[in-house]
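Milestone 3.1: sequence recovery, worked example.
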């Protein structure tokens, strides 16, 4: 890599899926700029997943008003789901490291610099967050705990908080693992199956300030169980090989 290319390549890319979060996006962008700009150069890819509200317009207006060259707004043609939205951002990113946040502002971007440093030091290929003190309802916390237990039993892996949206993962691993709806919740297991090292780190969690949650027991339980068995099969069948040399 020459000097010009190195200078143009961001240190990391932040990918945030956005679906009907018009009341959060401006505050989210304010916070991202304040917290992450000192740790740049970076790029932020906010992926509008077919929002039906004013999310896209508000993000575009914020970018114009702030002259934010680091902000890229990726617009999907239709609502495709969180995994597809995150993956679209990863595909468009230029940086070697991908950090992710949920678009509801419950994740705290102040956790990201320490997580990025762990991967940059070579101590892990991925760092995934654990919300030890979740600011959600009892029903959401209980269903998540049950879901994680079932998930670990079926997949044979050990992940404390699979649904936590804050992660730092090498981009090459995002592009290497199998792609399917719901994959964002299984990244730790998929990366381990691919031979990568994953560590967990406690992160801050905040109450939702605006908008409504997009997931619940009704639209996740059966689908999640099906995905668990699919990942169990993938782990048993995944291809892993390294070329030693070419003569």
């Amino acid at each position: 890599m020459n000097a010009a290319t190195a200078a143009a390549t961001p240190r990391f890319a932040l990918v945030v899926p956005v679906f009907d979060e018009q009341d959060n996006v401006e505050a989210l962008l304010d916070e991202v700029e304040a917290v992450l700009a000192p740790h740049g150069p970076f790029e932020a890819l906010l992926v509008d997943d077919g929002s039906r509200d004013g999310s896209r317009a508000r993000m575009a207006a914020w970018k114009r008003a702030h002259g934010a060259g680091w902000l890229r707004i990726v617009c999907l043609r239709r609502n495709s789901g969180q995994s597809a939205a995150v993956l679209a951002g990863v595909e468009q990113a230029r940086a070697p490291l991908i950090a992710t946040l949920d678009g509801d502002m419950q994740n705290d971007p102040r956790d990201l610099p320490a997580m990025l440093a762990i991967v940059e030091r070579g101590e892990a290929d991925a760092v995934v967050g654990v919300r030890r003190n979740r600011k959600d309802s009892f029903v959401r916390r209980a269903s998540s705990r049950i879901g994680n237990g079932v998930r670990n039993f079926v997949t044979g892996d050990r992940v404390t908080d699979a649904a936590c949206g804050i992660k730092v993962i090498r981009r090459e691993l995002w592009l290497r693992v199998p792609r399917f709806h719901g994959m964002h919740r299984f990244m730790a297991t998929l990366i381990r199956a691919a031979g990568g090292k994953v560590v967990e780190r406690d992160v801050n969690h905040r109450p939702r300030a605006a908008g409504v949650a997009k997931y619940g027991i009704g639209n996740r339980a059966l689908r999640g169980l099906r995905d668990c068995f699919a990942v169990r099969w993938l782990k048993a069948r995944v291809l892993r090989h390294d070329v030693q040399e070419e003569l």
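Confidence is low (pLDDT under 50) at residues 1-6. The chain has one domain: 9-236.
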